[in-house]
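Module 6 notes. Inverse folding takes a fixed backbone as the condition and produces residue identities as the prediction. Think of it as a translation problem where the source language is geometry and the target language is the twenty amino acids. Below is one complete input and output pair. Work through it position by position during the lab.
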């Protein structure tokens, strides 16, 4: 369905970049338990490789997830077979009644589908609001202006035992866009396989995003971290709630 997050980048993301999903899961679990919830359905938009789903399932919750990447869903189904994980866009996914909706890892910024930058995102917020039970939680993070600190472009790399990833990032402030040119190397037997993906993200200004959520009926507050994992500059966390009573 999507050229993004093919099998090699999925493997690298899953093995080397899962800390954000783990921290977000503990944040959601704690918030739900403070609200007196010990079970119920959580819908994860852009669910990735199932790290978040596994943690929620182990805590006693049900999980429905959507992701454009077939490789991510395949990995997620192996890790969290009890979850209902679907290959597809969250922009037109049927969101079931639930106690929480999440989108971890800048999912609402990625322009794999250009419609995510326009009115389709507002319609998604409205659908999330309808699906949530009163006092339900809508927790997510996005890229915002200033995501790339310092001059552009910037180059950096990470490596694991059997993989290396090289990234060149470039922020276009006037266009509110960030591009990441990603080159991967993954060991396959005695050789290495090279791959490449380009990801383009929409940078959401905080006030604009909060206004869109309030227009959909949410009460909104920014958050600075998932657990002890604080967000970097230009990485905006949001906790929105559906009011208990709706006029």
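Target side of the pair, the amino acids:
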């Amino acid at each position: 369905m999507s050229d993004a997050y093919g099998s090699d980048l999925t493997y690298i993301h899953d093995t080397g970049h899962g800390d954000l999903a783990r921290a977000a899961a503990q944040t959601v679990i704690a918030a739900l338990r403070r609200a007196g919830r010990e079970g119920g359905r959580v819908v994860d938009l852009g669910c990735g490789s199932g790290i978040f789903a596994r943690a929620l399932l182990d805590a006693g919750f049900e999980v429905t997830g959507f992701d454009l990447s077939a490789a991510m869903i395949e990995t997620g189904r192996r890790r969290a077979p009890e979850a209902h994980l679907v290959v597809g866009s969250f922009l037109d996914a049927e969101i079931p009644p639930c106690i929480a909706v999440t989108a971890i890892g800048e999912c609402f910024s990625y322009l794999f589908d250009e419609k995510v930058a326009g009115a389709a995102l507002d319609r998604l917020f409205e659908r999330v609001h309808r699906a949530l039970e009163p006092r339900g939680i809508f927790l997510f993070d996005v890229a915002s202006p200033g995501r790339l600190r310092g001059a552009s472009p910037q180059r950096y790399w990470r490596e694991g035992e059997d993989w290396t990833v090289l990234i060149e990032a470039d922020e276009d402030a006037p266009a509110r866009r960030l591009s990441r040119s990603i080159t991967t190397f993954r060991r396959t037997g005695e050789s290495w396989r090279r791959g490449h993906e380009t990801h383009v993200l929409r940078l959401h200004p905080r006030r604009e995003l909060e206004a869109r959520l309030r227009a959909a009926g949410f009460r909104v507050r920014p958050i600075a971290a998932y657990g002890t994992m604080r967000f970097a500059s230009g990485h905006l966390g949001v906790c929105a709630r559906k009011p208990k009573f709706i006029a």
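Reference fact for the lab report: DSSP finds six helices and 13 strands in the chain.
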